[in-house]
């Protein structure tokens, strides 16, 4: 049976919505794991590795990029990315309690890794993230609210209308509405 990323992510989204209506909240990562198990895969990573592969492929296909951004303050990072920007924590890792946190965040097709490990990422890095409607995204952020961030929409940005926010580690996230969205959304 052939699956594609849109089918699987859509199933995970529908699962979350159905459970939410029953009063059960789960993150995107958990819903992807459940869908993978329902389809007979060991876990989401195993299923994801099979998505989009074509018969006779030579194994040189590349997956989506995942930027690694530096973080310093776990609570400020969670408040910014999860509470304010609406990302879900897909997974997190520490070598042992009290050690630096490394976590993967996801919102729709956007995946970011955040790391407290020295040498991972550089504070002040810039990430360009496509968004279907920059104005709608900006309104969402305004309604969610953050004590230190109140972005507008730069309508004259070179790649299209852009909402720019700066995270607690000074990383710059540019949510841009591209002129040719079909190139950026599955």
From the spread of the alpha carbons, the general shape counts as: globular
Give the overall average pLDDT: 86
- Order of SSEs, N→C? HHHEHEEEEHEE
Uncertain runs: none
- CATH T-level topology of the largest domain: 2,3-Dihydroxybiphenyl 1,2-Dioxygenase, domain 1
Report helical residue fraction.
25-40%
Oligomer: single chain
What would you call the structural class? alpha/beta
Q: What is the CATH homologous superfamily assignment of the largest domain?
A: 2,3-Dihydroxybiphenyl 1,2-Dioxygenase, domain 1
Compute the number of helices. 5
Which architecture of the largest domain would the CATH scheme give at its second level?
Answer: Roll
Q: What secondary-structure arrangement, pairings included, does this model have?
A:
Elements: H1 5-21, H2 28-38, H3 44-50, E1 68-70, H4 74-84, E2 88-93, E3 102-107, E4 110-115, E5 126-130, H5 134-144, E6 162-166, E7 172-176
Parallel strand pairs: 1-4, 5-7
Antiparallel strand pairs: 2-3, 3-4, 6-7
Family: Belongs to the bleomycin resistance protein family.
Protein name: Bleomycin resistance protein
Keywords: Antibiotic resistance
């Amino acid at each position: 049976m052939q699956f594609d990323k849109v089918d699987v992510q859509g199933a995970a989204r529908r699962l979350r919505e159905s459970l939410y209506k029953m009063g059960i909240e789960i993150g995107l990562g958990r819903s992807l794991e459940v869908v993978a198990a329902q389809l007979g895969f060991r876990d989401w990573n195993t299923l994801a590795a099979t998505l989009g592969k074509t018969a006779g492929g030579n194994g040189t296909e590349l997956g989506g990029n995942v930027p690694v951004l530096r973080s310093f303050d776990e609570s400020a990072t969670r408040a910014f990315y999860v509470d304010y920007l609406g990302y879900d924590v897909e997974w997190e890792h520490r070598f042992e309690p009290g050690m630096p946190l490394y976590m993967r965040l996801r919102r729709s097709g956007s995946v970011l890794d955040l790391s407290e490990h020295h040498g991972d990422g550089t504070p002040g890095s810039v990430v360009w993230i496509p968004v279907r409607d920059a104005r709608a995204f900006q309104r969402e952020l305004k309604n969610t609210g953050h004590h230190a961030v109140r972005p507008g929409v730069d309508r004259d940005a070179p790649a299209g209308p852009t909402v720019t926010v700066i995270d607690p580690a000074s990383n710059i996230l540019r949510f841009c509405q591209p002129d040719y969205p079909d190139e950026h959304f599955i």
